[in-house]
Amino acid sequence: MRFSREDEIQTFESMSKHGQGPRLLGRFATGRVEEFIHARTLSASDLRDPEISALIATKMMEFHNLDMPGEKKTQLWQRLRKWLNHAKSLCSPKDTKNFGLEVLDAEINMLEELLPEGCERIGFCHNDLQYGNIMIDEETRLITLIDYEYASYNPVAYDLANHFCEMVADYHSDKPHVLDYRQYPSLEERQRFIHAYLSSEGKKPTKTEVGQLVNVAERYTLANHLFWGLWGLISSYVNTIDFDYKEYARQRFQQYWLKKPILFLNSPSIISQDGVPNGSVAPLA
């Protein structure tokens, strides 16, 4: 997947100045030298550990509060439209139809209109907070977030949604592309995570505040499914890594069409009676 290498380098340098992630020790024409971190990368099961989960929540708040270069406004919708256009330029007519790409412009417009950006906080988001991008020092219990290729300003609820969605993945299994949505965090787990997230600023959040952010984050999972669905579809055409990108994309789009009627019961709908656009990816039986 294409991303701006210059933006990634700028982000890394700024993160280093803020004391986040590995320190930047030097740069040369074709790369850079980073600090070695005495820590281990998390596993899929670590995300479900209440203690580690609370540490991640606290680190996310710290990350979201960073004052980073760039316009402090949502980048999500612009990137979604860019990736959709890129996917359309790559895909065969069969894939374009099967993955419902022709209706996604309208879906993105709908999400941008219905998700309450004006009522929520924009922060500097990691946007790819899967377990492989989180490290922990076993002695100090300090959490370090790494790999900032997709980092940008976005609604913090979107970053929370992304983290919750990543809890269904195990990229070190025999079938790393398969997502097990039975592992999606329960309401109690999401409430606990967001309570820890909001508490990290030193003020005890109310049940209403926790509930509101839980609900907004859940709605943002729809945008997250489109984001990584498009990523998987594009990657299936441009990457040669042994990973079933197209099946991964199918699962993410499937979740979008399954969850949209539930999360937006009263929203405008261009879906069929089965909950998916005609001719596109249908839910598994």
UniProtKB/TrEMBL annotation:
CDD domains noted in UniProt: ETNK_euk (cd05157)
Q: Show the Pfam families listed in the entry.
A: Choline_kinase (PF01633)
Q: Which SUPFAM superfamilies match?
A: Protein kinase-like (PK-like)
- What InterPro entries would the database entry show? Kinase-like_dom_sf (IPR011009)
Origin, by domain of life?
Eukaryota
Which PANTHER family is this protein grouped with? Answer: CHOLINE/ETHANOALAMINE KINASE, CHOLINE_ETHANOLAMINE KINASE
Q: Which family does it belong to?
A: Belongs to the choline/ethanolamine kinase family.
Q: What is this protein called?
A: Choline kinase
